[in-house]
Amino acid sequence: MLSSILTTGCLSRGFNRLKLISDSNHVEKIANFHPAGSSKTLNCLYSTIVGADRWEDGTPSQFSNTPPKDARVVICGGGIMGAAVAHQLAQRGWGQHTVLIERGRIGEGNPWHFSGLLGELKPTHSQVLLAQTSLELIRDLHAKGLPTGWKQTGSLNLARTRDRMTMFRRMKSQSVAWNVECEIVTPEKCKELCPLIDIGDVVGGLWIPNDGVGNPNAFCHSLVQESLEKGLTVAENCTVTRVIQKDGRIKAVETSKGTVECVYFVNCAGFWARQVGQMSEPYVKVPLHAAEHYYLHTKPIPELGEKFPVVRDLDGHIYFRENEGCLLAGGFEAKAKPAYEDGEIPISTAERKLLPDWDHFHPLLEELLRRCPSLQDVALERLSNCPEAFSPDCKWIIGEAPEIQNYLVAAGMKTVGMSAAGGVGRAIADIITQGYSTVDLHELDISRFLGLHNNRKFLRDRVREVPGLHYDLNYPFHEFRTGRNLRMSPIFPALKEAGAVFSQVMGYERPAWFDKKNAADERGSPKFRIATTNGFGKPHWFDHVQSEYENCRERIGMSDYSTFTKIDLWSKGNEVVDLLQYLCSNDVDQPVGSIIHTGMHNRHGGYENDCSLARLSENHYMMIAPTVQQARCKAWIERHLPPGGRVSVSDVTSMYTAICIMGPFTRIMLSELTDTDLSPKSFPFFTCKELDVGLANGIRALNLTHTGELGYVLYIPNEFALHVYTKLMEAGQKYGIRHCGYYAMRTLRVEKFFAFWGQDLDTFTTPLECGRMWRVKFDKKVDFIGKEALLQQRDKGVERMYIQLLINDHDPDLDLWSWGGEPIYRDGLYCGQTTTTAYGFTFKKQICLGFVKNLHPSGRALPVTNDYVLSGDYEVEIAGIRYPAKANLHSPNLPTKYPDQEREAYKATRDKTDESNLLAYRPNK
């Protein structure tokens, strides 16, 4: 048996400092026989001698139940996620009605194959809430004397660069809102907290004292033990073979030990969640792919001590912690190595083992030795290769599947399953027992994916870069490099030739900005360029976006809106009108040709969707919704369809190319290309018509923009898209037409105080809070979803309000920018957070949109009124520095060379009658 391995490099790289120390002569002979062998030789040597990944717990199983013939809930997967869901259901009295099915053994796992890191500071507030819930549950079990492996060690995050410290300061600012205790520390303090590290290249750190570590296997067994006492049925060595639905709802689950009729099915199959998703008809997309992940274990190191903190050297992509007197280290390399590329994942945990690849792990090992030079003299126990499953956007996958009702998924927890399990388990149990989660899950919702995201080759390519995001610098507007050029509108080649630099949303390529100077490669061909924002200050694309912005305001700007979700709804009779009246808070029964902007709400009045409905005929509507809602809003509608197929719903997103033209000369230019009368009397603001443009027909034209500028959005059948685009560009030359990207659109809508779903609005935001009460029609005959909750809120008053903030005393060239998520202070006290931000080119200031609260010293929220908002002095904290800000309840009218009555009269945010304190714009003289 090999007693120790000490390595500072791989044999295949020519390093000769590998030492093999063993009592076995056989080991020494093999090592001497291959003094500079290949990595394959080393891997085989390591696997053969050490037996890495072959550890098996011989403890006899205590579960052998055969599943019953019926239950309310069937959970597939007896790992930590399935155990957490079962535990939460059992705590609510559902234990006797819940069955946990595991194809192997409950909590089966190799002790060499987990990190056990428990941290509460996550990228978003929702993830923080879930992690805090999980930590609370772990502490509770620990206090009861149940094994969890919990130790509060604190975590020390190290920074080597100025940008990393900026990120830490942003996290520290956000921590106030998220109720996370943390502290910015000096390099010297880092050394004091962890004497083992070298701080020669460290510029600072972030210390989170309440973080800790745990044992996932022990935690899993403790959860199941408590659940068993409350009636949970556990079936081990039982395999789910088929998931049966009827009329779009879960009906039963077939297993190797019989069929279980049930009402809910929860896919917690971890590695196999994607395969389990394919066991139903229609199959449920759970886009996951495995990547190799490594854990390095040392022999015992006496000086570590139990309070040794978790250390994350993010710029080195590594972490390490104490584990039973030894050091456990791992990392998230910039380019990961996909596992099981053929899509065949072994059934059992034991069969899932992979040989360690020392060549691949070598860069992380070098970083570990750089941070802790003394480890060169430490004996190593083993390197374990334990693949982990990742989603294509590196976020958890939670929620009800859009394909089948009552089919829930909790998967894609990456390497932090223990940190997420308690919170995610509670969220799933909330959905099952009360119909909704108490935490907004839209960013983690499984319906954020389309079928393209479940393509195995796409997932294989994407998983190469996803793990590295864990420790990457979180710059604004992150863009993936893989899975690109996937969804493209017919005018994509023309946009690329015009200099487009692309961002991607829902797989769709959309221009972020245009830069004609660098549009061609060395051969003169248009090149595909991906947008970047590699900094927290003034971005390199500033001048391009400013020029595009000015064109939209004073001439004509053209933007590709093809990514927006487009859904047609129709019926033979009035069924579609009745359905939309029930789903929507606005009155959709308007004359043909009208455009109705409306919310679709849940029972609490929160936004499930924010959309525009164009009434094309008496019983035919076209819905325009945010891009990220393509699967989600369609599923929401389908869950409420009347029986019998009386209303037809069709996703037509890919059938139409959408071109938005905006600016003061758009009506004149478009009139030259169509015979339709475009005068305000014939084609007024917020109406739609079918037009001919050039030689093309059947174009759905909407007289609106999503930014508050004058203009039209043309929904063009794809076969006519290039023709219409060309005609618009030709006709627009004399009016100064130019291409405009998404970043300019973002600035326009932030200045005009337009809220977007998924950025400003979510499932907990109501129309009363964001100044859209005027779109809610309480007096219409149909009781729409959420009406009662909105009436109660109207009578009681709102506890937060959506406002616009103009930042003062801020130098955009020198100071860090606000990018969203910054805390807002009123009279020196925390009161809210920003949501969307942008630089206002007319105001010449940073502009922040966000929500403010009226918090009692005890933390209790009090009603927020206009007077409360306007009477305070505000500051926005950007990476630890507070800047004074002017609060607006409405966006001020922006000056223009070509004022227009329609443009100036329309405000998306209303219901706030006091406009006396708005900032008056004064141009520089």
UniProtKB/TrEMBL annotation:
Residues 803-887 form the Aminomethyltransferase C-terminal domain. Residues 435-489 form the FAD dependent oxidoreductase central domain. Residues 493-780 form the GCVT N-terminal domain. Residues 899-915 have a biased composition (Basic and acidic residues). One of its GO terms (cellular component) is mitochondrion. Residues 72-430 form the FAD dependent oxidoreductase domain. Residues 891-925 are annotated as: Disordered. It comes from the Eukaryota. Belongs to the GcvT family. This is Pyruvate dehydrogenase phosphatase regulatory subunit, mitochondrial. It comes from Anopheles minimus. The lineage of its organism: Eukaryota, Metazoa, Ecdysozoa, Arthropoda, Hexapoda.
